[in-house]
Amino acid sequence: GQQVMQIPQYQHVQEGEDFTTYCNSSTTLSNIQWYKQRPGGHPVFLIQLVKSGEVKKQKRLTFQFGEAKKNSSLHITATQTTDVGTYFCAGRDNAGGTSYGKLTFGQGTILTVHP
Amino acid sequence: EAGVTQFPSHSVIEKGQTVTLRCDPISGHDNLYWYRRVMGKEIKFLLHFVKESKQDESGMPNNRFLAERTGGTYSTLKVQPAELEDSGVYFCASSLTRDGYTFGSGTRLTVV
């Protein structure tokens, strides 16, 4: 079945440093989504990427979708303590024949930011 | 609008007992999903409803798990009998369009 690998598992940074997490799928994806889960909380949707090579920005966050639609990355510029949490990528393929089908989540990257 | 509501937030049961988790999706969201996160690992898919129909239940671990969605509104996930390895956080999510899911706060299930 489809697998989504995410690295690194942990990342510790000083406030103000940059942070990147990477996601790779074993199959070509129709789209990929990113979620953030704060400690003790639940995943919150950040963004969806659909097109090959797509790049989207949300303030200090930059999301990329690879040309082959099998990999993605999330980059945070100048991290802040409010960025702390676990960042998940989640990919959807078309095997189920529906655009609303299941997402396969990566293992997540736990980000800690030291002030 | 109200978000996705899950009940209970925590449940501690003994091995062999039965537990029923409930999820109230956002009103009008036809798609409802159940996921589970065990021991801080990845969030794993359990099943997907479209309205009251099971669209995909390929992630259900075994026949001890039974999910229903009455009238296409709220959903229940019953575990009977519960085993130690069923412990984890059970998330429900709903969606309307092709955009992201809205997750509930989850039910933390502990089987002792």
Can you tell me about this structure?
The complex is a heterodimer of chains A (115) and B (112). Chain A is mostly beta strands and 115 residues long. Chain A has no helices and eleven strands. In chain A, strands 2, 4, 5, 9, 10 and 11 form a six-stranded mixed sheet that branches. Chain A has a five-stranded antiparallel sheet with strand order 1-3-8-7-6, with no helix packed on it. The radius of gyration of chain A is 14 Å and the shape is globular. In chain B, 0% of the residues lie in helices and 51% in strands. Chain B contains no helices and eleven strands. In chain B, strands 2, 4, 5, 6, 9, 10 and 11 form a seven-stranded mixed sheet that branches. Classes of the chains: A mainly beta (115), B mainly beta (112).
Can you summarize the main beta sheet of chain B?
A: 7 strands, mixed
Number of strands of chain B: 11
Order of helices and strands of chain B: EEEEEEEEEEE
How many strand elements of chain A?
11
User: What is the global morphology of chain A?
Assistant: globular
Q: Given the C-alpha coordinates, what overall shape of chain B results?
A: globular
Oligomer: heterodimer
Short description:
The complex is a heterodimer of chains A (115) and B (112). Chain A is an all-beta fold and 115 residues long.
Itemize the secondary structure elements and their pairings.
The complex is a heterodimer of chains A (115) and B (112).
Chain A: E1 4-7, E2 10-14, E3 19-25, E4 31-37, E5 44-49, E6 55-58, E7 61-65, E8 71-76, E9 85-92, E10 104-105, E11 109-114
Parallel strand pairs in A: 2-11
Antiparallel strand pairs in A: 1-3, 3-8, 4-5, 4-9, 6-7, 7-8, 9-10, 9-11
Chain B: E1 5-7, E2 10-13, E3 19-24, E4 31-37, E5 43-50, E6 53-56, E7 65-69, E8 75-79, E9 88-95, E10 102-103, E11 107-111
Parallel strand pairs in B: 2-11
Antiparallel strand pairs in B: 1-3, 3-8, 4-5, 4-9, 5-6, 7-8, 9-10, 9-11
What keyword list fits this structure?
heterodimer; A: 115 residues; mainly beta; five-stranded antiparallel beta sheet; 11 strands; globular; B: 112 residues; 0% helix; 51% strand
